[in-house]
Structure formats: structure tokens, C-alpha cells
Write a sequence for this structure.
């Protein structure tokens, strides 16, 4: 007897299995997105839009240094300024936008890294003219960087607008209402709301436009506010507070003591935290410990503060 049958089967497949990768993955470069200058993290500039900030009155005739046309790295793009044949004319470049196409290390960076390891060339295209331009970038000299990164500017604008601040009186000296031109009297502990983040049109500093309850508006330069210090360092030295932080310290210290701190003043009975916020860190602390108390002498340039068990008991 013959039997017939059909076979049903699945097609055999071969799957390639990748061997375990024993190489260490390169660490991702991390940087603070609130910083305009990226130093040695030059690859992070690639693809970004840069705004060429105008020059202040003292540097306008000097012009911009480091720009060359795309067809000759040894020539000067938009030559020449009133002061130097090696610099570009300020009015020909100020306010233009550039997109970074590529970044090239200095040709001698490998042979002489000490001298040229921090020198790079940004290959850029200008937004309107479509000119290809090279810019000589020094990753260790922030003061030479004339650009404002558009992502940085947008980040700062988003971060500051609508935020309320309380400043020490020293931050707001000699302020003028930008609408009326009249002097603004600074009230200790007054709240100021950031209503714009911009570039002021005299010396072209990045600035916050602040408004008080009276509607007066003042300009506060970004670098005067933050400088190169961390934000918390400025808080601890009593210069700048968000409204939330100011209210916290008013509850902790009392309104009178907090206003004294804003005026950079110290009175007997303050604790160490208050004194440090008012005057900053002392240059030296001398401590004496006895069976009943801990005494400290805080040394400043021309003053001495004396604490007993953390409370200010004398000044010299």
C-alpha cells in the first residue's frame, strides 16, 4: 500500500549575532547650555547660527580681527578698518548671522600643540550674501569671541523673561529710566521683573530690561549680574535673589536684617550666614575653642568680626 502525504515546514533563517563590543564608548561631551562661549568643545559649534555682535565705541574703529574670505585664508574679509589693515570694517559685518559649516584645526596643531592646539578655523556662510567666510577661533580666549550663539540667546531670553528679582543696592547704582531718561531712586528690597532680554544699543552688552511696580524700566548688563561666577555664589554674597529666595530670607532673618544685607551692612547680633551674605567670604578665620564656647575672628581687608557661638558680638 502506498501512502501519500504533504510536508509543511518553516523556512530556516540564519541570524547574524554581533560579538560583544569590548571597546569603551567615548564619553559624551557635556556643557552648560547657558554658556555662550564653548571653549575647547569646538565640535559643538558645528551647524549653529552665530550673531556677530556690534563693537562698543572704543573698538569700533579697530574693527573685527580674524575674518578671512573663503578663497584665501591669508586675506582680510571686508578689509580694512580705520586702525588696522589686518582687521575687518565693523559696520560691514556687525549684526550679520553666520552658520558654521565646518571646523578645522590649525594646520600646525599636531606638530606644535602648545602654540596652536587652541586655534581653530570656523568655516561659515553669511546668511544674506551667502559668502563663505573663515573665522580664526581661540578656544582659550573668551574675550576675543565676538559672537552671540543664537541658541544661547534664546535660552537666556526664555530663562529670564517674567522672572522677578531682588538686588542688593550696589547692583543698581546710577540707574536711569530708559523711557524717560530720569534717574531711578533705588528702594531697598524692591522687586524688579525682567520684561526683555536684549542687546543695549550703546556699548552692545547683553542685558536684561527690568521693570518695577511704578513702570520704570532699567538696563542691567548680563555680565554685571552674573559675571563669571556661579549663580549660587552671587546669592551667597547677597547680590542677587529671585523673588522666591528673597521671601525665604525675609522669613528666616526678618525684613530689617534682610534689608541690611541688601545694603551690605552688618550689625551686632547677626549670625554668620547673614554676615557672609552681606560682606562675602572673609580672607581668614581664626578660631578659639574653650569648654563653654567657640569664638571666631573673621578677617577682612580693613575690618575684623568677632563671633561667639555663631553670633556676632563685636566689630573692629
Amino acid at each position: 500500500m502506498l501512502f501519500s502525504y504533504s510536508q509543511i515546514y518553516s523556512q530556516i533563517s540564519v541570524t547574524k549575532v554581533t560579538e560583544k563590543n569590548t571597546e569603551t564608548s567615548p564619553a559624551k561631551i557635556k556643557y552648560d547650555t547657558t554658556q555662550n562661549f564653548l571653549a575647547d568643545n569646538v565640535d559643538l559649534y558645528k551647524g549653529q547660527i552665530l550673531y556677530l555682535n556690534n563693537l562698543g565705541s572704543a573698538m569700533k574703529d579697530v574693527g573685527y580681527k580674524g575674518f578671512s574670505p573663503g578663497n584665501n585664508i591669508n586675506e582680510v574679509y571686508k578689509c580694512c578698518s580705520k586702525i588696522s589693515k589686518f582687521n575687518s570694517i565693523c559696520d560691514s559685518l556687525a549684526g550679520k548671522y553666520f552658520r558654521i559649516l565646518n571646523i578645522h584645526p590649525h594646520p600646525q596643531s599636531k606638530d606644535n600643540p602648545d602654540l596652536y592646539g587652541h586655534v581653530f578655523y570656523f568655516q561659515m556662510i553669511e546668511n544674506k550674501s551667502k559668502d563663505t567666510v573663515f573665522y580664526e577661533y581661540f578656544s582659550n580666549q573668551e574675550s576675543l569671541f565676538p559672537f552671540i550663539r543664537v541658541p544661547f540667546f534664546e535660552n537666556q531670553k526664555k530663562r529670564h523673561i517674567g522672572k522677578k528679582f531682588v538686588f542688593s543696592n550696589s547692583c543698581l547704582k546710577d540707574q536711569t529710566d530708559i523711557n524717560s531718561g530720569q534717574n531711578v531712586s533705588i528702594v531697598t528690597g524692591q522687586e524688579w521683573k525682567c520684561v526683555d532680554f536684549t542687546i543695549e544699543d550703546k556699548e552692545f552688552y547683553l542685558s536684561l530690561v527690568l521693570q518695577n511696580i511704578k513702570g520704570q524700566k532699567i538696563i542691567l548688563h548680563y555680565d554685571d549680574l552674573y559675571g563669571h561666577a556661579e549663580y549660587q555664589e552671587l546669592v551667597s554674597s547677597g547680590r542677587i535673589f529671585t523673588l522666591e529666595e528673597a521671601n525665604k530670607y525675609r522669613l528666616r532673618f526678618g525684613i530689617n536684617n534682610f534689608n541690611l544685607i541688601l545694603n551690605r551692612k552688618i550689625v551686632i547680633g547677626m549670625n554668620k550666614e547673614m554676615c557672609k551674605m552681606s560682606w562675602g567670604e572673609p580672607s581668614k578665620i581664626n578660631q578659639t575653642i574653650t569648654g563653654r564656647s567657640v569664638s571666631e575672628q573673621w578677617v577682612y581687608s580693613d575690618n575684623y568680626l568677632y563671633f561667639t557661638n555663631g553670633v556676632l558680638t563685636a566689630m573692629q
